[in-house]
Write a structure and sequence with these properties.
Length: about 375
């Protein structure tokens, strides 16, 4: 395979000539975000199976010629666990490259492991052991060393070959359409748009708050999200989650009460204390109908419901084994317990999980499909309509 490192406009033009007309492109990115809200894009790797290149966006004025090829809807874009890579495309260019294929999702569906890492997948399918020495590299530092570039290129050199093997396996099993919904979610801008109004839903400890406390949390978390976006700083640098929940719980009314909040630094109180107090005060005055509601933990199941959940767990394990996939990749017991209580907006009832097990689990709930023991083995059997 021809390998290139691209850091001039001439080299970029040459790369585009070599990969133009490709049926698919394997893509990966390197970035750092420890000190920023948005990822700092440092390297783009691309391969079409014949050419592999590392492209340095920090050395190039623009990537337009390459982006034209990447965004070509006739070219399949291949990623492994691509959500963070796709976030970069969304943030920088406001659109996502489609159609796409994620090898981690496909590997899970084929029983190769739950959220299997790229290195493990390369070893399983190709028998090649990759180096792991640069997983924590600061990709923003220049110049990049040869061993860093080698590590980066490995992330796409084998990705295309893995894609071809996985795609063939999916086709053989008749499952090539089962990942459509998952890929559509990855390709949806809504996946990457973070609304400050919904930021509270990702705060650790929110489940211990209720009523007006959640209104305060929503207000504070939305403010923090906006501040972090504006300043391009990590959210934890603005306020930590545990401070947000403590402020929401105790709702201080003056600076002295703010000073009693554990984890709230003196400098933050000095610069943002008045702002925090006003945000808390404004949230407390919101009418009750505007308070957000945390999705409550389902009520404890009674003994009969627990038995039904046990039946679903048994059925799930059987379906997983039949399809050579781990049951944990399909659903958790908590999710099955939610099914018992009537919940239907669940992962197990979407996409490939529904096709593989979700529909059958619903039939078990409806009494149309039952686990039975035959010759010492358990299997699901259709119940006679009579």
């Amino acid at each position: 395979m021809q390998e290139l490192h691209v850091e001039t406009a001439e080299q970029l033009t040459r790369l585009c000539e070599l990969i133009s007309g490709s049926q698919w492109l394997a893509l990966d990115t390197e970035f750092v975000r420890e000190k920023s809200y948005y990822p700092n894009f440092c390297l783009l790797q691309v391969s079409n199976g014949e050419v592999a290149a590392s492209v340095d966006p920090l050395s190039l004025d623009e990537l337009s010629p390459l982006l034209d090829i990447i965004y070509d809807p006739k070219v399949i874009k291949i990623f492994h666990a691509g959500r963070q890579d796709l976030e970069i495309f969304h943030d920088l260019w406001s659109k996502l490259p489609t159609p796409l294929f994620d090898t981690q999702l496909a590997a899970t569906l084929l029983g190769l492991g739950d959220q299997v890492g790229y290195g493990n997948l390369v070893k399983q399918l190709l028998g090649i052991q990759l180096e792991k020495g640069h997983a924590r590299t600061d990709w923003s530092r220049r110049p990049l060393q040869q061993d860093q570039l080698r590590y980066a290129l490995d992330d796409v050199i084998y990705l295309g070959e893995i894609y071809l093997k996985l795609e063939a396996s999916l086709r053989k099993l008749g499952r090539e359409s089962w990942l459509v919904e998952d890929f559509e979610m990855l390709a949806s801008p809504d996946t990457y748009i973070i609304s400050p109004d919904k930021a509270w839903q990702r705060i650790k400890g929110r489940q211990y708050l209720k009523g007006v406390q959640l209104a305060v949390l929503q207000t504070l978390a939305g403010w923090r999200e906006s501040e972090a976006q504006r300043a391009n700083k990590p959210k934890r640098w603005i306020l930590k989650d545990e401070v947000l929940t403590e402020l929401s719980k105790r709702q201080p009314k003056d600076i002295k009460q703010l000073e009693r909040i554990r984890g709230l630094e003196t400098g933050t109180i000095g610069h943002k204390g008045d702002t925090l107090l006003k945000l808390i005060s404004d949230a407390r005055q919101l009418p009750k109908e505007q308070w957000p509601e945390e999705k409550q933990i389902p009520p404890r199941l009674n003994s009969n419901q627990q038995a039904i959940a046990d039946l679903l767990v048994c059925s799930l394990r059987l379906l997983a084994k039949t399809n050579n996939i781990t049951h944990t990749a399909l659903a958790t017991r908590k999710e099955l317990e939610k099914m018992v209580t009537g919940a239907r907006d669940l992962e197990i009832l979407h996409g490939w999980r529904r096709a593989l097990a979700g529909d059958d689990l619903l039939k078990v709930l409806e009494g149309k499909l039952l686990p039975v023991i035959k010759d010492g083995r358990i299997e699901l059997e259709q119940r006679d309509s009579a």
